[in-house]
């Protein structure tokens, strides 16, 4: 560890050299017997010709461009599309393992009806027509008895769009996706309030030219997305300094110039002290602030108390370190970036943390400058022509999809339209929450408590409420409260074991999906087309929703005979065609520096806030009486014998989706509990021994210990996504401990998103 913390130059060289040496290392790892078989003489054979099909990956949410090879009607190799700007032709281990999604022996292969109790996994096969007829019949029964708003739709994947459309056509406003309330929500809201731009998802950062990265737990080498990771590597290779802030010494920390082992839940205090130093020392971009920023005087007064010495007692980061970092960044500005964690759902005031990150970036003048944040290009592709939805809560403005609520208030109007049950975007409840994606955590509670009105039918598309939420009892109660639950998915999991009907989906290698429309330095449209025929009796999501729409009298919302026809319709509205898109799998608008970096070319930045400027004290928060969001809120600390409980990602698993993938399970079949040697010694725990982890509610379980100095003594950590109990998950079942059992389930006080990082746990030797 000491060696890793010395000069960052040696670490960078080793990192970049290691990437080039991967193939050599892989060969060296093979046994001599295995190498002998590779080089054994054999008769020359001629391989059959293969076809290539275009796609974008579904193994995580970065959606890298793919070129999939197939032979004899079956996919056998996944490569990257070199033309795709999000990955430049690179595919990671998760992406390569997508083959095993299609060929998994235990995937969902035909429609099934539950014959036993919910969760008991007793099923009978049924034909598609019978299954779809039953779904339509049961949804209609719920609608007639309770109204259309009694249907909840929860989607989690790149294919969820048709289910949202079907639910809105049905007449319910209650559609959600975990991406907001359980992951990125506070980041997006913070940036939108301050700069009018939702800097999240596929971030528009000029990584290659950045000269200073302050990484607030953004573990970019393990929670990896290919294009972003490649850009960051280029930036490091080009000489960028990296300061990594995290309670744990991750792989990313090992590539940094310095690691700051911050106390969990205290990022906000550290950032407030940085803002204090930047303002008091006049280290901000004065020209940018004068032209583009409002609220500096008010912010100066608010951060007066947040000195470096004040934060030292909270974060354990020395005051002089804060002053030095502020000066170093100011000297490199505007080619600097304060890098948010991707998942910012941790504390009781994640909005304040997100705002502090956005404020610091803005004070350094990074917008529309080289090495900072660029303005993306996009290609406008209109939606297909559809009837209006039957409730007042959906905006179908161009560029916002057909289930975007961003421009509609959620008051009950004169026609008495029903508000969302989770309160997302609802005045008086959670007005800052984005109702396009909703608050999935709050929706589970509404379903469990049947409040504010009956919620009696559930449609899910992918996802797993047990492993992406943190309150098993509430999720289970919600599922048991449903009169009817239909799950559409590719693979089995704990949530869909509670369904009444399972509709098996074709994998992403076996179907068309809607267009991928991206905004990077190049604008682009990308294609996902079938690389093979479905191996089983499955259907794509659009085909499922079209078939249901016909049975529900909603066929006008799915007017095309095929998904390919729909894509061609959309493309022709934009001046292209499906045939043109099939040539390279992607259509691009070339890089244009004058558009990407207007302030480098005499142009102006545009900030779509109410004032048209960066608002350091957002006017929308003031109107809502929430201007205190920037203020520090005390967070819990462990008592004697307790630890902060933290969790995170590795590069070869995605959330809780991939532990049952045979290839990826090989790399990490189960998780371990990281604990510092000093803490372990006090508890008599040795490396590899089994321990029991529990929280104050008595939740938890057993897991093997990993004793390592790469974590703070007051903190323990485990990898997210393990501890599955569904016996259909034949590879993952019974392995490891679920972090969702131990993460906290309180609310962020301004947005309503979940606060997962506030639990303390005890660890005992078994």
From TrEMBL:
Keyword tRNA processing: no
Full protein name: Thiosulfate reductase / polysulfide reductase chain A
High-level lineage: Bacteria, Pseudomonadati, Pseudomonadota, Gammaproteobacteria, Thiotrichales
InterPro entries, per the entry: Asp_de-COase-like_dom_sf, MoPterin_dinucl-bd_dom, Mopterin_OxRdtase, Mopterin_OxRdtase_4Fe-4S_dom, Prok_Mopterin_Oxidored, TAT_signal
CC cofactor: Mo-bis(molybdopterin guanine dinucleotide)
Family (UniProt): Belongs to the prokaryotic molybdopterin-containing oxidoreductase family.
GO molecular function terms listed in the Swiss-Prot or TrEMBL record: 4 iron, 4 sulfur cluster binding; metal ion binding; molybdopterin cofactor binding; oxidoreductase activity
Keyword Iron-sulfur: yes
Keyword annotations of the record: 4Fe-4S, Iron, Iron-sulfur, Metal-binding, Molybdenum, Oxidoreductase, Signal
Top-level taxon: Bacteria
Annotated source species: Thiothrix caldifontis
Domain 4Fe-4S Mo/W bis-MGD-type: 50-106
């Amino acid at each position: 560890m000491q060696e890793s913390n010395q000069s960052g130059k040696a670490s960078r060289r080793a990192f970049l050299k290691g990437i080039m040496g991967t193939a050599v290392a892989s060969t060296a790892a093979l046994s001599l017997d295995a190498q002998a078989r590779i080089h054994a003489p054999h008769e020359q054979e001629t391989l059959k010709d293969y076809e290539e099909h275009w796609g974008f990956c579904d193994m995580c949410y970065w959606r890298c461009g793919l070129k999939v090879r197939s032979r004899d009607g079956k996919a056998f190799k996944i490569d990257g599309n070199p033309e795709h700007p999000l990955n430049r032709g690179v595919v990671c281990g998760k992406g390569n393992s997508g083959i095993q999604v299609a060929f998994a022996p235990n995937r969902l292969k035909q429609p099934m009806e539950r014959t036993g109790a919910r969760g008991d996994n007793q099923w009978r096969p049924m034909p598609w027509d019978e299954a779809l007829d039953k779904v339509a019949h049961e949804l209609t029964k719920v609608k007639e008895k309770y109204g259309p708003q009694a249907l909840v739709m929860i989607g989690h994947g790149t294919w969820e769009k048709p289910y949202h459309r079907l639910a809105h056509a049905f007449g319910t406003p209650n559609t959600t996706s975990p991406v907001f309330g359980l992951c990125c929500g506070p980041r997006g809201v913070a940036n939108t309030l301050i700069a009018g731009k939702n800097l999240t998802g596929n971030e528009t950062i000029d990584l290659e030219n950045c000269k200073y990265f302050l990484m607030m737990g953004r573990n970019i080498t393990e929670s990896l997305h290919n294009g972003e990771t490649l850009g960051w590597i280029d930036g490091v290779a080009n000489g960028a300094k990296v300061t990594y802030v995290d309670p744990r010494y991750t792989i990313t920390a090992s590539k940094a110039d310095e690691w700051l082992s911050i106390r969990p839940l205290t990022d906000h205090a550290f950032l407030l002290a940085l803002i204090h130093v930047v303002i008091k020392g006049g280290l901000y971009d004065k020209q940018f602030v004068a032209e583009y920023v409002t609220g500096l005087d008010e912010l100066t007064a608010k951060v007066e108390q947040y000195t470096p010495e004040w934060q030292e007692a909270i974060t354990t980061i020395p005051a002089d370190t804060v002053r030095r970092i502020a000066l170093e960044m100011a000297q490199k500005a505007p080619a600097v970036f304060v890098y948010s964690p991707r998942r910012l759902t941790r504390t009781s005031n994640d909005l304040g943390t997100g705002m502090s990150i956005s404020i610091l970036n803005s004070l350094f003048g990074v917008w529309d400058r080289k090495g900072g944040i660029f303005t993306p290009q996009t290609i406008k592709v209109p939606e297909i022509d559809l009837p209006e939805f039957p409730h007042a809560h959906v905006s179908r403005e161009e560029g916002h999809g057909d289930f975007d609520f961003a421009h509609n208030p959620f008051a009950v109007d004169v026609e008495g339209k029903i508000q969302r049950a989770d309160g997302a975007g609802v005045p008086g409840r959670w007005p800052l929450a984005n109702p396009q994606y909703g608050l999935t955590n709050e929706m589970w509670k509404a379903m469990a408590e049947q409040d504010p009105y009956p919620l009696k039918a559930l449609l899910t598309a992918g996802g797993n409420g047990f492993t992406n939420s943190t309150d098993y009892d509430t999720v289970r109660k919600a599922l048991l409260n449903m009169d009817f639950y239909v799950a559409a998915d590719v693979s089995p999991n704990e949530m869909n074991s509670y369904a009444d009907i399972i509709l098996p989906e074709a994998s992403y290698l076996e179907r068309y999906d809607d267009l991928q429309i991206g905004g990077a330095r190049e604008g682009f449209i990308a294609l996902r087309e079938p690389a093979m025929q479905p191996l089983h009796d499955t259907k794509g999501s659009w085909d499922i929703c079209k078939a249901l729409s016909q049975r529900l009298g909603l066929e006008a919302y799915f007017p095309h005979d095929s998904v390919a026809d729909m894509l061609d319709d959309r493309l022709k509205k934009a001046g292209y065609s499906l045939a043109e898109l099939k040539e390279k799998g992607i259509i691009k608008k070339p890089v244009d520096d004058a558009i990407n970096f207007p302030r480098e070319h005499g142009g102006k930045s545009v900030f779509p806030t109410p004032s048209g400027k960066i608002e350091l004290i957002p006017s929308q928060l003031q109107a809502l009486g929430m201007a205190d969001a920037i203020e520090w809120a005390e967070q819990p600390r462990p008592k004697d014998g307790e630890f902060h409980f933290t969790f995170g990602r590795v590069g070869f698993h995605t959330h809780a989706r991939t532990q049952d993938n045979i290839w990826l399970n090989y790399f990490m079949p189960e998780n371990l509990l990281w604990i510092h040697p000093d803490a372990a010694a006090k508890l008599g725990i040795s490396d590899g021994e089994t321990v029991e982890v529990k929280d104050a509610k008595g939740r938890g379980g057993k897991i093997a210990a990993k004793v390592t100095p790469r974590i703070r003594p007051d903190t323990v950590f485990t990898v997210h996504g393990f501890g599955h109990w569904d016996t259909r998950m034949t590879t993952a079942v019974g392995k490891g401990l679920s972090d969702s059992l131990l993460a906290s389930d309180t609310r962020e006080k301004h947005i309503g998103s979940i606060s997962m990082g506030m639990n303390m746990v005890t660890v005992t030797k078994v």
